[in-house]
Design a protein that fits this description.
Number of helices of chain B: 16
Oligomer: heterodimer
Structural class of chain B: mainly beta
Order of helices and strands of chain A: HEHHHEHHHHEEHHHEEHHEEEHHHHEEH
Structural class of chain A: mainly alpha
Largest interface: A-B, 85 and 81 residues
Radius of gyration of chain A: 26 Å
Strand order of the largest sheet of chain A: 2-6
């Protein structure tokens, strides 16, 4: 009798034991998923608050488009003051800073790429799969490119194999170590990512927050321009302009009375990206460099659309393609045109370069007021293109990299700030052009810091 | 008279003890019986410890338990059992806030984890209690057993790493006459005095602001696009600067402001005495085959801020003997806990997120509610030309313009059927259903600032017309959380005796499922009067009126569902030989539906064993001075799981993206294949004894524990995509000694009993895998773990005195005197630049309870002590002062002129203040660390019991009147400053309360 009961209970326990293997497979939280659907991976790339609206502002903060008063400077936080005076250390604090903005996206992209094989690919069309995969490569390339522009010196062919690049994390494995690649490897990886993206991405997307084929070509243009590889700039600009379903905005038709004249996702935008905009760059604290403002003639429609002049004569920027105070740093049709014009001019195709510039000016100047003399020298033509480029792309986060790369080819641009009566200079090709990597990152990864 | 009473109790006791043996039911031992039975040592230890799975005779257990019975629980007044235990139990403490564990975490024998669950497991009537412990009426509790060591706790397996608190509710007794008991109490809590918080006086705050104005501090905010506000003094100074007011008007206004004080407004007009009312009725009894206990409780608690809590609870325990073999036990407990929130405290009166200056009054000169500006005054006063809603905040009116209510409902049903299979063998099947519901309702009336502000911010203004995208009306937030737990247990109890052997054994299986659903919804344009609502557009962006930026209408709607399942197999065996040699063994295997883990990794085996030897039972033992002596030891493992950890990448849905028209996701868990469960291993050695003719009864226990594979979040290189990662990172060793002494100093007509609990507890991290982080992260209540130091440790910056030139604080950087605060905050310091003080939680603590009795009077005194630890005192920080109006009286003792550095350590006030590194360095330097040692006079309780003949006349029994005063004060403290080490920054502190109580039985 006693034994019978024991057997019954033993049997019960065994049965329960087996049956609970399934019972324990219940998901503890409905919101949690192990990636199994394509939409879940695409969802990672659709987190617009991080992917599209969390861009680094260093490209503008370190440039010469703006200045702040001593009073503003005094009220700024310590790290912001350090940025303004191009300090050699402690530019980035905490665990959320420009470094993490880029590497968060790298991780996001790597997670998509690494988890692609966990998806039942038969359920989806190859176009859907390619769009997501291409999006991931694009995002990784873009993050690497931004990081390279901040923490590396400008690319110089030949020299780049010996220069410090950025850590190229190509896996989502958290245990992999971070080590710095060379600058050459860095740019090659960026090109690889964008080229893969270009081959996979569709021509059209539901929103400009997602990249298209044209966006990938456009970023290749940006990359090659920063590498001074003008043949490829010309080539990919053609590809981009062919693929892009965009129109140039006629500034004559833009209403000047609205506080922010431009709309978000307007017809010039190829890819949308917003800067985390620090107050020092925009109204009321961020004041526009007088030289820059004065370089616009009165016939230049951008003068009124981009800027407001305060009663005390200072100028604020208001021409963001975000339609709000935050600054835009994505890709536009005119940027590609300017890069193309610059490349053609440098490749001695002055006629074509000139045509692009003159054509574009029709949409930027009141009727036919832009004058470009026939037969000016190639050098002068390049200069004119660069002047228009600066005016067009002011406050788009591109100025810092433009100064960096132009100085390498001898532009000799020295930046200057006046803080409490003291002049602070940033000499061409100075070490400060490759910003210090956040001290915490160096400490935890053991990577090499940039020279001071 | 007294003698007779005792006799009566003894008989009752023996009678019940027979039932105990037959049916595994419990008898509780009152101290009174204990006292009388001193002559007969064989019957004395009739205490049962309850593990939640079984009740074991304390004699036959080997583990470490602390048992608190109904009598001792009634000596502390609290409406929540968890507030009682740390005051009276052994080895248990409530961590002061700012330590690793945060506030209100109760620990048993210190922490065993830092990344995982830190709370002890609470078990009610055999099953883990998942609801808020506030749902349990302490008057319904019969006994609390605290399981302290591995042998005691390992039966609870993977949830027992932090100790287990087993609560048993009252039930009736078979063959007892039915009786009613009534107990009621009224407590008056004194009104706190906010002026005890001595910050900077209003007049001096105005001077500081005038100084800042002169320096043009924050002048750039005049054009701030978010229209951030200025303080009233600043606005007046601006008005003067632009000649809008005369110098005389300015002076008058400033003079008026200097006479205002927010704290005084609160003291005189908002704060009031707290009032607590408790009423408990119960009816219990039993026949041959049935017993019952029905109780009804109603508690009301109105605090100094008008918050009104009401709890109603019903408990019914009903047990049947169906026949000789089958027993059927049922429990039904139902509680409703309702809370209406009162006023906000003065520290929560804010403008634009910052504290308002202390000279802000609630009423203006005319006695009307005063306005606080959340945006720039000049902007609010003019914008919209009167077509917008009033955009000012009137804190004095707000209380009546919102209605925040919380309602917790709990239902706890239990049914168990015990089959007696054979003599000494019972099969128990128990099912427990718990349902805990929380309904939170937050209503802001149309006229509240919250509602007006939202409506205005989203008003679309085209110059002459206002279009409101958020409709006018009340705003209602509703949040519902619903938790349903199902528990099933099948258990076989074996209780066999033969010759000199005795075996108690249980084996069983536990299945549990805890499902949680939650939702929260906001309704705009609601009408509380008509119960109508409006809709808003959550999809499109709207331009915010004040900042010109684009934003979506705030959408706080949320849905969530979780479901946790566990399966556990367990067994426990105790073997006794000749009533003096005892061996126990227990084992348990747990599995849970941990997400993203393969099933074979879900199972986690844990075990423990113990030995006990009652030396005084040996035939050779005849030491009269020590009539009872027992030694015991246990060794084993318990565990800790964190269901949130995972071995694969998991994603979480974040929300809907309007542009891509899809749900976006983010990485919720970073994959870590190496994650293992935390394990706690504990050795316990104890001696129980009675000396001096049983006048002193005591036990001394020593424990050593080692917790391995502890999770902790370690900072990682953000290049990897995250800044923190949870890893099995550390090994923690803990050791300590617990002492319990019960002394009957006098017995007889005048009696005096003393009960002493005291514990020494230490811990040390002995190994860390990821040695990362910078030493400067150690200061303050740091979470950084470091080998050879305890978890809760206090480090500070080495103090280099104030700079005699300008009163700057000085520290040490790599051994050299330094004022480079940035470097002190971020650079690598060396150990010699820091000072290690010691533990930040008491390492020697306990309680002393004394009870005096004379005739019908009793006097109980409870004293608690906390010793051998340090805390960081609050002080002034100038960055917070000028930006956030955070003040501190240390301002008055600051360095002001050369020479002051000889008498003060408080840095000078300098301007400009670019960051708060200078303040942070000073706040965390060694001069602000004080010893926390102190002794608290917890309570005194005077009781009067009616004479028996009067009771007979009134037809009542046990009629007792009580007068209790709690939180009397600090008897002694080591720090010489007037700071309560437990509440260094709480201006309210502990509120003294006086309680009148009455109880009797019919």
């Amino acid at each position: 009798m006693k034994n019978t009961y024991k057997y019954i209970i033993a049997l019960c326990i065994t049965v329960i034991n087996f049956s609970c293997e399934n019972w324990l497979d219940e998901k503890p939280d409905k919101k949690l998923v192990v990636p199994s659907k394509l939409s879940e991976l695409q969802g990672l790339l659709d987190f617009q608050a991080r992917v599209n609206e969390f861009g680094s502002a260093i490209g503008e903060c370190y440039g010469d488009n703006y200045y702040i008063t001593d009073q503003t400077y005094q009220n700024e936080r310590d790290d912001s003051q350090r940025k303004y005076r191009w300090a050699a250390e402690y530019i980035f604090n905490g665990s959320v800073n420009d470094w993490s903005y880029e590497y968060d996206n790298v991780f996001r992209a790597n997670t998509v790429i690494d988890n692609m094989d966990k998806i039942d690919l038969d359920k989806y069309s190859s176009a859907q799969i390619n769009a997501t995969l291409g999006n991931a490569y694009f995002l990784r390339g873009e993050a690497f490119l931004n990081a390279a522009s901040i923490w590396c010196k400008a690319y110089e062919e030949g020299k780049a194999v010996n220069e410090l690049g950025i850590p190229l994390r190509l896996t989502s494995d958290i245990n992999a170590l971070s080590t710095r690649a060379t600058l050459e490897e860095t740019y090659q990886q960026i090109l690889t990512d964008f080229k893969k993206a270009a081959s996979l991405l569709p021509d059209q997307q539901i929103t400009k927050l997602r990249p298209t084929k044209a966006a990938a070509y456009g970023y290749l243009v940006r990359t090659y321009l920063w590498m001074n590889d003008y043949e490829n700039v010309e080539r990919y600009a053609d590809s981009c302009l062919n693929a892009a379903a965009v129109n140039i905005l006629d500034y004559k038709k833009i209403t000047v009375t609205k506080p922010f004249p431009f709309e978000r996702f307007n017809s010039e935008v190829i890819y949308e990206k917003r800067m985390i905009t620090p107050t020092v760059l925009v109204a009321p604290s961020g004041l526009v460099d007088k030289g820059l403002f004065n370089s616009y003639t009165d016939a230049d429609l951008r003068k009124a659309l981009y800027y407001t002049v305060n009663t005390n004569g200072t100028v604020n920027f208001r021409g963001s393609y975000e339609g709000v105070i935050n600054l835009f740093m994505g890709l536009t049709y005119p940027e590609v045109l300017f890069s193309q014009a610059e490349a053609k001019s440098r490749l001695k195709k002055d006629k074509e370069a000139r045509e692009i510039l003159v054509n574009l000016s029709r949409y930027r100047y009141s009727d036919n007021s832009y004058y470009l003399a026939e037969g000016i020298s190639l050098e002068e033509l390049t200069d004119r293109i660069l002047i228009e480029r600066r005016k067009e792309l002011a406050f788009r986060g591109l100025r810092f990299m433009d100064i960096k790369r132009l100085n390498v080819s001898g532009a000799n641009i020295t930046q200057e700030r006046v803080i409490k009566g003291e002049k602070v200079l940033l000499l061409p090709n100075s070490n400060a052009y490759a910003l210090p990597i956040p001290e915490d990152v160096i400490l935890l990864s053991g990577m090499q810091q940039n020279p001071k | 008279m007294l003698y007779k009473q005792y006799i009566y109790l003894v008989i009752l006791f023996l009678g019940l003890s027979n039932i105990v043996l037959g049916q595994s039911k419990i008898v509780e031992k009152g101290d009174t019986t204990n006292r009388l039975l001193t002559a007969d040592t064989t019957v004395i230890e009739e205490v049962y410890v309850r593990t939640g799975y079984q009740a074991i005779h304390k004699e036959r257990s080997t583990g470490s338990f602390d048992v608190l019975d109904e009598t001792s629980l009634s000596t502390v007044r609290a409406s929540n059992i968890m507030n009682k235990l740390p005051l009276m139990a052994n080895s248990m403490q409530q961590m002061p806030s700012r330590t690793y564990s945060g506030s209100d975490v109760i620990t048993i024998r210190g922490l065993s984890t830092f990344g995982g669950q830190r709370k002890p497991l609470v078990v009610v009537d055999g099953f883990p209690y998942e609801g808020d412990i506030d749902q349990l009426n302490p008057n319904d509790i019969q006994q609390v057993t605290i399981l302290k060591d591995a042998a005691a706790a390992s039966i609870w397996g993977a949830r027992a790493g932090n100790g287990v608190i087993v609560i048993t509710t009252k039930s009736g007794k078979y063959q007892s006459s039915s009786q009613f008991s009534i107990s009621m109490s009224n407590t008056l809590a004194s009104k706190p005095d906010p002026t005890r918080y001595r910050g900077i006086d209003p007049v001096d705050m105005i001077t500081i602001e005038q100084f800042l104005f002169e320096k043009e501090f924050r002048f750039t905010d005049q054009n701030n696009r978010n229209k951030v506000p200025f303080s009233p003094v600043y606005e007046l100074l601006f008005a003067r600067k632009t000649n809008k007011i005369s110098q005389k008007e300015l002076d008058d206004e400033l003079q008026w402001l200097a006479g205002q004080d927010l704290r005084k407004d609160y003291k005189n007009n908002i704060y009031r005495n707290g009032y607590i009312q408790q009423l408990a009725l119960s009816y219990s009894g039993g026949s041959q085959t049935m017993n019952w206990h029905l109780s009804l409780g109603h508690d009301r608690d109105k605090n100094y801020l008008h918050t009104d809590k009401a709890r109603t609870s019903i408990l019914l325990n009903n047990n049947f003997k169906v026949n000789g073999r089958i027993q059927w036990n049922n429990k039904m407990a139902f509680t409703i806990n309702n809370r209406d929130q009162g006023s906000i405290d003065w520290t929560d009166v804010r403008f634009s997120g910052n504290l308002v200056p202390i000279y802000t009054s609630l009423w203006n000169k005319e006695g009307m509610p005063n306005a606080v500006y959340d945006y720039r005054k000049t902007y609010i006063d003019t914008v919209g030309g009167g077509r917008l809603l009033d955009w000012k905040n009137y804190p004095a009116k707000e209380v009546d313009l919102r209605k925040f209510n919380n309602r917790n409902t709990s239902l706890d049903l239990l049914s168990s059927v015990d089959f007696k299979l054979l003599e000494g063998m019972t099969w128990k099947n128990t099912y427990n259903l718990q349902r805990h519901t929380t309904d939170e309702r937050k209503l802001w009336f149309e006229d509240s600032f919250f509602a007006r502000d939202l409506v205005n911010r989203y008003s679309q203004w085209n110059g002459d017309e206002v279009k409101r995208v958020i409709p006018m009306g009340d705003i209602l937030n509703e949040n519902n959380q619903n938790m349903i737990g199902h528990y099933y247990r099948s258990q076989l109890d074996v209780d066999q005796k033969w010759n000199h052997h005795q075996l108690n054994m249980i084996v069983g299986i536990d299945l549990s499922q805890l499902a949680n659903t939650g939702k929260s919804v906001r309704t705009y344009g609601f009408s509380e009067d008509n119960y109508t609502s409006s809709v808003v557009d959550y999809v499109n962006f709207y331009r915010l009126l004040h900042s010109n930026s684009n934003a979506l209408i705030p959408n706080v709607d949320y849905f969530g569902a979780t479901k946790y399942r566990t399966v556990s197999l367990y067994g426990n065996a105790g073997y006794t030989y000749r009533n003096r040699y005892i061996a126990t063994l227990s084992a348990r295997k747990d599995a849970a539906n941990v997400f993203g883990v393969r099933t074979n990794q879900k199972w986690n085996p844990l075990w423990s064993s113990g030995l006990s030897w009652i030396i005084s039972q040996e035939p050779f033992y005849n030491w009269k001075q020590l009539p009872y002596l027992r030694v015991r030891t246990t060794y084993g493992y318990s565990g800790n799981i964190d269901p949130a950890q995972s071995a694969v990448t998991t994603l979480a849905y974040g929300g809907y993206s309007t542009f891509s028209q899809s749900q976006y996701t983010f990485v919720n868990q970073f994959p870590n294949e190496e994650l293992r469960w935390e394990k706690v291993n504990m050795l316990n050695v104890g001696v129980d004894f009675r000396i001096f003719n049983n006048r002193i009864e005591g036990s001394v226990e020593h424990f050593r524990k080692k917790a391995t594979d502890l999770f902790s979040q370690v900072p990682v290189d953000i290049t990897k995509g995250t800044s923190l990662l949870t890893v099995n990172n550390a090994v923690l060793k803990g050791w300590g000694t617990d002492l319990n002494l019960k002394v009957k100093v006098f017995t007889g007509p005048v009696n005096w009993r003393v009960n002493i609990n005291s514990s020494w507890q230490n811990d040390k991290i002995t190994f860390i895998r990821e040695k990362v982080g910078r030493l400067n992260n150690l200061v303050g209540g740091s979470r950084l773990l470091i080998e050879d130091y305890p978890i809760n440790k206090l480090f500070s910056y080495k103090w280099g005195g104030l700079d005699p030139q300008n009163g700057d604080p000085q520290g040490y950087l790599n051994g050299r005197l330094s004022k480079n605060y940035n470097a002190l905050m971020v650079d690598s310091l060396t150990m010699s630049d820091l000072v290690y003080h010691g533990s930040s939680t008491p390492t020697f603590f306990g309680n002393i309870y004394q009870s005096f009795g004379w005739k019908n009077l009793t006097l109980d005194i409870r004293i608690n002590f906390y010793s051998k630890y340090y805390f960081n005192k609050e002080t002034i920080g100038y960055y917070e002062l000028i930006r956030n109006n955070v003040t501190h009286e240390d301002y008055y003792r600051r360095w002001q002129k050369p020479g002051d550095e000889l008498t003060t350590d408080i840095p000078s006030f300098t301007y400009p203040v670019a960051n708060n590194n200078r303040d942070l360095f000073y706040k965390n330097s060694e001069v602000n660390v004080l010893r926390g040692d102190h002794i608290r006079f917890q309570s005194v309780n005077l009781g009067y019991r009616l004479n028996a003949d009067v009771e007979r006349k009134l037809r009542v029994k046990d009629f007792t009147l009580g007068l209790m005063v709690e939180n009397i004060g600090i008897l002694w403290k080591k720090n010489k400053q007037d700071i309560d080490p437990f509440y260094p920054r709480n201006h309210v502190g502990l509120i003294r309360a006086t309680t009148f109580s009455m109880k009797f039985k019919i």
